[in-house]
C-alpha cells in the first residue's frame, strides 16, 4: 500500500523534525494562511499549469502573480509552475531540428529563448522572469489564496552550460569515445532529439546527493509545496526514494510525475499523468474510438492502479499545445464535453494556462509568445466545474476518492453515463460522445439539478432522452 510505504520512509524523520520545529512551522503556516499539504487536501483539487514566459506580454513572475486571485475563482488548489531557472545558451534550440549555432544572423539568434527544460543553474531564476524575491512573492500570494505551489523539476538532464559539465563530468552519460551525450533511446542508441540537453547518469556516485540538495534549496528557500517531475520514469526510482524523505523532513510535499507507470506511485509519487485517457479522448472526438473503448480502459486502470493512486486528467498541457495542437484542433466541438469529463471522472483535472480564455493557438516553444486574457465561453465553464469539484464529495478524486459506477444505457456505443458517490452524496455524468444527435434511455429516475444548465428536472422510469452532438449533463441528486 502506498500510504504505508510512504509513512515508513518518512515517519521517523517527520516525528523528530516536528518535535524540534513545531512552534516555528506553526508560525510559518499561520503567516501563509493555509494548511500544509496533506493527501486530504487533494481530494477536491484542480491543478493549473503556468508557463511564466508565455502567460503575459511581460513574461514575468509579477505579471502572473497579479492574476492568482483569478485562479482561485476557478477552484484551483495546486499551481504547477514550469521551470523558472536560467536556460543554457550552448546548443540552445531554435526550432525542432536547429540550434542557434546553425543561425548566423545575430539579431535572428536573439529571438530564440530555448527550452525551459535545458537548465543551466538549478538554484537560480531566469533573469527575464524577475528575481528570487519575485518568485517568493508568487508563492506567498498563492498560499494566501489557498493554493499550493509545485515547481517543475528536471532531474533527467541539464543544459550544456551547467557547471557540472566541467566540474562533475562523471555525472553524465558518455559514449564509447568518452563524450557526454544527449539522452539516447536505450533500445536503439539513437538520439531522442533532445540535443539541447546533457543526459545525467544516476549510476554516478554523488549525483543523488547533489541533485537532492538542489531540490531541498527550493523547499527551504521559497516554501514551495512539492514538484512536478519531468520524465520521471527516465530517472532511477532509487533516486526519488532517496530524495523524498529528505524533502519531507522540511515539510510535507506533493509529488506529480510525468509518467503513468503504476510502480512509481507505490512509494513516492502522489499523482501521475493519465496519458491513456488523454489520447483516447482525442480519438473519440475524431471518430476513431467509441465509448466502449473508454469503458475498457477504465477497467484496465482499475486493475493496475491502487485505489489511493491519483491520475491527472487533461485535455491540454505545454507539450500537447505546442507539438500536437490545441484542444480545439484535437477535440473540435467536443472541447467543453471532454473538459467536463476530466472533472467528473476519478482523478484531478488540469487547466493549462490559456484554456480558461478560449486560447486557440499553438504557443511557440522556443520563442516568446503570449496567451490572450479575454473571458469568453470557457472561463465560466471552468468556474462552474471548479466550484462543483471543490464542494461536492461525489467528485473526490484523491486517496479516498468517490466511487465510480458505469450506468448502462440503450446506446452504450455513443452514450457515456456513470455515477460517482461519496458519503451518501451522488452525482451523475451523462454525455453523448459522438458527432451526431442520439436518442436513448437510461435507468435513472428522480428529481435532479442539471448543474451546468442551472435547471431542475425530473426523470421518469423508462423515459427517452435526446442529446445533441457532444451534449452532456451533470446531474446532482
Could you describe the 3D structure shown?
- With 477 residues, the chain is α/β, with parallel strands linked by helices.
- The protein has 2 domains: 2-402, Glycosidases (TIM Barrel); 415-476, Immunoglobulin-like, CATH 2.60.40.
- It has 15 helices and 18 strands.
- It has helices at residues 2-32, 52-55, 61-65, 68-73, 106-110, 132-144, 164-167, 207-222, 237-250, 275-285, 291-304, 318-324, 327-331, 335-344, 378-391; strands at residues 46-50, 76-81, 148-153, 157-159, 197-199, 226-229, 254-257, 271-273, 310-313, 348-352, 403-406, 415-422, 425-432, 438-441, 446-450, 455-459, 464-467, 472-476.
- The strands form 4 sheets. It has an 8-stranded parallel barrel with strand order 1-2-3-6-7-8-9-10, surrounded by 4 helices. It has a 6-stranded antiparallel beta sheet with strand order 11-12-13-18-15-16, with helices on one face.
- β11 and β12 (415-422) form a beta hairpin.
- The longest helix is centred in the N-terminal third of the chain and has 31 residues, at 2-32.
- The radius of gyration is 23 Å and the shape is globular.
- The two termini are 33 Å apart.
CATH architecture grouping of the largest domain: Alpha-Beta Barrel
Major beta sheet summary: 8 strands, parallel, barrel
Q: How many whole angstroms does the radius of gyration measure?
A: 23 Å
Total DSSP E strands: 18
**Assigned CATH superfamily of the largest domain:** Glycosidases
- Spatial shape: globular
Helical region count? 15
Average of the residue pLDDT scores: 93
Major β-sheet strand ordering: 1-2-3-6-7-8-9-10
Give the domain tally: 2
Report the portion of residues in β strands. Answer: 15-25%
Instruction: Tell me the CATH topology of the largest domain.
Output: TIM Barrel
Structural class: alpha/beta
Instruction: List low-pLDDT spans.
Output: 1-5, 7-32
CATH class of the largest domain: Alpha Beta
Report, as a whole number of angstroms, the end-to-end distance: 33 Å
| Residues in helices, as a percent range | 25-40%
